[in-house]
Amino acid sequence: MNIIIKQPTTQTHLDEETAIIVDLYWGEIANIITVLTKLYEDHDMTQCKVYIYYPEEPLTFRFENWSMTLLGALHKFANERDIKPSNFFFYTGNFKAPELYASIIEKRKLLGDEIRIILCTAHWDHWLKKPRYKSPTRKRHFKYVNLNGEKRWWRASVLNFLYENEYLDSGYNSYHSSDNELLPDLQRKIPLIADHLLPNSHTANQEHLYNNAFFSIIGETCYSADAGGITEKTYKTFFYRHPFVMVSSSGTLAELHNLGFKTFDGLIDESYDLIEDDDERMLAIQQEIKKLCDMSLDDLNEWYDSLKNTFDHNQNLLEEWAYTSKRGRHRIDWNSIKSK
Fold it and tell me: Model-level pTM?
């Protein structure tokens, strides 16, 4: 018998017919220890495998007054009940999970073998149902695309920077929600709406925005030191052939390189990706945004045209993924996971 804990709408690629299925929205994942405790009371968990399946989410929830990560809490749960931690399979979009887990094991002196972490990502294939995107030859009139759904302090920080430096009218900006992190004068301009996403949609047609601008400012889902995730916000720039400045956790560009993508170091100084301090990294990111926003449209056009080989490479890699049946870190055979 196996146990699968997942979001209600998620398809797992696991054998669900003989498993106990627990539907738990990712926003409720902090209740997972309570759920597992109840299951332990009713079933012999020493003899089963537990699949915690949230590949779309870079989960960072902490327990015990924020002193232990979700993985640490699961390991402790197993230790206290003589369950092998390796009976747990944790599917996550947080590429920093292995490093964080190792530090928790050392700090908390957790015993036994280790939870098996399967790094995944999602939402990368939404645009591949469309014909291959080709950059238009007509003139572009804006410098950047900066689309933000949920309010986050790092996204607000970038928008404040654009406003203070009078770059706001140079690009397409979306910021849908009132946010106390925004400057008062900017707050009065909210909502800024450049795109019209439907609720819970990642696939609205935004092609006209990318057609008319030279680069993207990507406000990713994660920014802190204990989380790193790559979502549709990044993958759609590969589809739409857009260079970008990444507003995200340190190491995100390195993770993209590990996955086989090329980024845009050169004119853009991507060393900001190495800066672990969140505030210092933000300052470095803003300097790269400033550099690009201070360029003329003609200079941006020349730079954009020089990136054709990088655009081709990234589009080809997305299409290669689309023609395989492999997921999890994009190169893990799901059948091999099931057979373990």
Answer: 0.84
